[in-house]
Amino acid sequence: MSKGKAPKAEKTAKRKPSKKYLTQKINWKKKLQHTPVSQMDMDDLREITVGLAEVAHTEGREAVEKMLPADDPQDKLFLLGMQLAVDGADPSLIAGILATRMRTYLQQQEMRCHMIIEAVASVQALDSPRIVDLKLRSHYNL
Q1: Per-residue confidence of the chain (142 residues) as pLDDT tens digits?
Q2: Distance, CA of 21 to CA of 24 (rounded, Å)
């Protein structure tokens, strides 16, 4: 999609969804509402993503938006990606934004792990609380 152009109109199925599909859709929505994506195992994540693809294929991308849970801090990457897809953003733009967010997230997690290692070592070494504070702050306050 080029800049300034509206997304193409979606093609959706004209036939009425089956009872099986509607039951699955309810189950997918419940799972999304009750289990953060970040806590799903790989099979559950695959199942939910395939389910969302089925909803988008059957009812259009807007129907996917209605299934997504409220903004969950643990699932920001997934929710942002799905929202961009629902909005019809260019796939390469979505991939770029998500890759940048992923790198930032991984860097933050790595920093947290280094802080934990530093904290445990400092407590074990009986460092004073002031020294522990200074060591840990050095990871994020320059």
Answers
A1: 444 444 555 555 457 889 999 999 999 999 998 998 889 999 999 999 999 999 999 999 899 988 988 777 778 899 999 999 999 999 999 999 999 999 999 999 999 999 999 999 999 999 999 999 999 988 877 6
A2: 5
CA 38 from centroid of its chain's CA atoms? 7
b/e for 101-116, b at 16 or more Cβ within 10 A? eeeeeeeeeeeeeebe
23: its two tokens? 């039951």
Tokens of 21: 């599909």
Check the CA dihedral 95-52-47-70 and report its sign.
positive
CA distance 59 to 29: 14
User: Which H or E run includes 93?
Assistant: helix 91-124
- Reported pTM: 0.69
Give the amino acid at 13. A
Residue 95 to residue 115: CA distance in whole angstroms: 30
| C-alpha span between 138 and 133 (Å, rounded) | 9
